[in-house]
Fold these 3 entries.
Entry 1:
Amino acid sequence: EGGDAHDGHLGKHPSAPMPIMSVSTLRPTLSPAGLRAPAAGPRGSKRPSAVAARGSSTRNHKSVAALGCGKSPVPPLVLQTLVAATAFSLCAALAVPDAAIAALSKPLPGSASVFVGEFSDPKHPGCLRSIGVGEDSAFDVKGTDGSPGCLNGEKQRPWSLKGDLVEIPSKAPEILIDFTPKGGPKNLLGKWTGTGILFPDGNEWKKLSAQ
C-alpha cells in the first residue's frame, strides 16, 4: 500500500527520463547570410555612402570658392598676377616720353640760364628769337625771318639751330651757335652783355623775358 499511495500522490515516477534537446537546436545559425548588413529601407530610398557624401561636399565647396564666396585663400600666383597687372596699368597711365625726362633731368650750369629766354633781333624786327634747353645739345635756338622783319604780315621762314655753352673762368658766359642751316658759319660766338647776346658783326639780340 505504501508504494501505491506514493505513486498516486506524485502522478509520475520521479525518475522518468527528460527529453534531450539537441545543441544544434539552441545555437543560432551563423551562416554567411547572417553577417550581411541590415536590409535597406523602403524600396527606392538608398542611403549615400560616406565617400559619395565627401565627394559631393568637395564639389560644392569648390563651386562656392569659384564664385568668390568660399573661405579658401586666393593662390599666391593669382595675387602676383593681379599686382603685376595693376602696377603695369598704373605705370602706363603715368608714362612720360624719354625725351621729356632727359630734358628735365639734364643739368644746366647756372651761367647758362642767361641764354634761355626770348630775344629781339634789330635786323629782323618782330621775328621770333627763342633759346631753350636742348636734348642732344646745350641749347635749341629757334626763330623766323621775314623780308626783313615780321611786323607787317611778311612771309616768315622758320628755322632751328643748335647751340653750345662756352665757359671760361673770369669771363662772361658765351654761346656757340651753328648757323650752317641758314647758310652762316658753323660756330658763331655770342657773348653775354648783361642785357643780351652780342655777335661779332655787332648785332645784339636783346633779351625780352625768361622762359
Entry 2:
Amino acid sequence: MPAESLPSPAQPVQPAQAIQAGRIKELEAALAARDEQLKTLLVSNVILNSVFLREKTVLPPSIAMEVFGRIFTVEEVDGVATAVAHAPDGSAIMSREDPARLAGPEEALELYIMQYYPERDAILRASHAGSGAAGNAERQSRAGMIIPRNDAKAFAANLEAIARGEVNVR
C-alpha cells in the first residue's frame, strides 16, 4: 500500500482503511512468527547435526542449543536463508580456509567455541592422546576432578592425586 494512501493522524480513519491496516498488522505478525520458526529450525539443525559438538564436547544438544543458538542469525546469503554465526563484537565469523567468505555453520560453531567461548575448557572432551603421564599443568588442573568408582584406568592414573585429596572418586 503506498504511503500516500494511508490516512494521516489528523484525518479520520475510514472503516475500510482500518480493516486493511489491521490486516497488514496481522500479516506482519504472522510473517515475524514464521521468521522466528525459520530461525529456530535452521539453528537447531546446525546444533543437532554438529559433528564438532557431538564428538568434541560434553554438552547435550538441549544445552548446546541454549548456549550457542544465540550466536546465530538467519540471513540471506546468495539468495538462500542461512544460519550465520557472529562473534561477541557482532561481526560475522569468517572462514579460516577462505577468509573472504562467511564460515559455514559447523566451522563457525567450532571457531566460536575455540576462540571466544570463555568456558571452553569445561565443555571440551578430554583428549585421549599421549602417554597418560601427568605433567605439571595436568596436576594443577585436577583440583576438584571427579572420576567414576568403576573406572579402573582413571583410578590407577590418579592414585597419588586421590591420596592427596585432589581427585574425588564417586
Entry 3:
Amino acid sequence: MEHFASYLIGKPFRARSDHNALRWIRNFKQPKGQVARWIERLSVFDFEIEHRPGRSHGNADGVSRIPQDTREVQSGHVCNASNGNDETSPWCLRWTAKELSLHQHEDPEICRAIGWVKDGKRPPKEDITRMGPLMGKLWSKFDQLTLVDGLLYRIFENDNGNDRHLQICLPRKLIKEVLELTHDIPSAGHLGSQRLKEVIKRRFYWSDWQSDVEMHCKNCQICAERNGPSRKRRGMMVLDQPGYPMERVAMDIIGPLPKTPDGNRYILVVVDYFTKWPEAYAIPNQEARIIAQKLVDEWICRYGVMQRLHTDQGRNFESAVFKEIIDILGIKKTRTTPYHPQSDGLVERMNRTLKDILSKLVNERQDDWDRCLPQALLAYRSTVQTSTGFSPHFLMFGRETRIPVDLMTPEPPQAEVPPTTSEYAEKLRKRFERTYELTRVNTKKSSERYKDYYDAKAKDTTYNVGEKVWLYVPFVKKGKNLKLSRPWRGPYTIVKKISDVVYRIEKNANKRNRLVVHYNRLKPCFERPLKSLPNRPPNETKLQSKETTETRKENVENCSGQTPQTEPPTNGGNDEDEWTVRYFRRNLRQSRPSRAINGEEHGQNLPDEVQEDVQHLPDELQQDGPLSSMEQDNQRDGSDETLREPVEGNEGQSQAPPERPARTRKKPAWLRDYE
C-alpha cells in the first residue's frame, strides 16, 4: 500500500489476501506495540480487507516467489553413465575369496590344516601336542574340515541334526575386525554376547571363539557405560550400633509439600538412633539458617547436644553456617555417600512412615499437614519399636505415654511410689539401666538378623588400590533423556579404601575429580584391546600394492599343501609352539636383520642368543620380505634407483646411491605391529 500510496490515498479500495487474520487487524480495542504501529500507518487509507484462499490467490502468490535462473542446456547433449562397478559399501565387500585364501595360508595353524585336508590324513597326536593348544583344538575338528574353492571351512551341525552349514576358518589376524563388524558398528547394535555368538556361529570358526566373543563384549566401553551388572552389586553390610541416647542422631528433609496457610512447605525430621525418638518440624524453606535455628532451638535446647550428627550431602547441611554451629557445639558431623541413602536408613524409613500417616490425616486440599504433625508423632512414639522391643517414649522418659484410649478405662493400680524424690530418681536410674541393656541386646539381635538377610545377596569382594572401575551416576544433564542415557561413567581408579564398602576414586589422575562413593555404585572395568593370541603369526595389516600381493602369492604356492618351510625344532614336548615364541622374542629385540638399522650393521653389539637366532632366520624373510610404505611409493613412481640394493655377503650392509647421502632405514610394517 505504501508503494502505491500516490494512487490509493483519498480513494476507497479493496485489498485481497490469503492471510485471514488480517481481516481483524482494525478491530483491536487497545492495540499495543507493533500492531498499534501497523494500524497507525494504515489509518491514512480507506480500504477493506477481503480474504481469498491460497488456491485462488495464485496471481499474486506466484509473483512473490524469489526468481531463480535456469541453466541453459545444450541441445542434443547426452550424459553417459559410468560403466564401472563402484563399491557403495566397501566395508561389506572388503575380503574377496582370493584375499581370504591368502590370509588363511599366512596363518600357521590354518596352513597346516589345509595340508592335512589335501593329504586326507590326520597327523599323529604326538606331533600336535608340541604345536600348542590352539593347534590341538583345530586337530580335534579334522573330521569337520573341508576345502571349498581353495578356502578351508568347518562343517557345523547342531545336536538335533536339523542345522548344518559351513563356517569359514577365520585367520587370527582377522578376528578383531570381524568382532568389530558384528558388534561395534551401528548396524550391529552392540548386542550381548549370546546374540553375538549366534551371529558368529552362522559364519565363522576359530579356536576359542566363544571366549573371544565374551571378552570383546565385556571390554566394549559403550556397552559398559550402558549395561549394569546382571545382578545388582551389594557390599557386605556394616553395622554401627549406638549404646546410649544422643550418641548418634540423624536428620533429613521432606518436601516440597503443598503450601499451608502458615507458609510451610518442608518438614525437618530428626531421629535418635538409640531410642528411635523422632521429631518433625514444619519449616517454610530449606535454607541452612532456618534448619540450624530449628535444630538448636527445638532439639538441642530440649534434649541436649548429640555426640554425632548424620546427614546426607545436601547443600543446606554442608553450608558454612551449618558447619560453624556444629564446630561451636563440638558435634562430630558425618554424612552419607552420594546417591546411597541406605547409609542413613533410620531417618529414610521414618520419612516414609511419617508420609504414610500424614496422607491419612490431611484434608482434601492437603494444606493442613503441618497441623497434623503432632498427632502423627504421638502415634509413632507411643507404639513399640520392633528392633528395640520398647516404645520411643519409654526409652526417652522411662514410662509409657498416656493416649486418649487410656481415659476411657479406669487406671490400673500402680506399684508403690517411693516416698522421696531421691528414691524415685534412684529407682528410675536402675530402670533405665535395665531397659538400656535389654535394648542393646534386642537391637543387636535385630541388626544381625537383618545383616544375615542382606549379606545373603551380597558379595564379599573388594577393590584394590589402582584398580579400574565404572561409577553409576543415576541422573542426566538437562536436555537429555534418562531412558536413552548411559549411566555408567568412567573409568575411574581406586585411590584409597576408606572402609570395607567406601572407596575414594579419581579420574585421569586429577585430584580435583576425586569422589567418595559406596561399593554398590561401582563395577569392575575391563579394558581393550582383545586378549593377546599366543600363536599369532607375523603379518601385514593390509594388502597395499600389487607387488606385495605377487610376492605373497609365491610364498602361498610354496606353502600350499604342505607345512611351512621353517619347521619347528624337534626338542618339543611343550604345550606351546617354541618356534613361534622364539620368533616373537627375536622380533622384539631387533629389527629386520638383513639391513642396517639406526646406523649399525647387523651382527654388531648383539647378544650371542640373538645372533644364533638370526642365523636360523628363514630365507624368505631375509630376501623377499614386504616392502615399507616409502619403498612401495617409490616403486610405483618408477624411481627404483632410490632403493638401496643389498651387498652380497653375510654382513647385511646396504649401500646408498652415490648422488644421495646414506639414510636410516625405517622399520618394516610387520615388525611395528609387534612392538
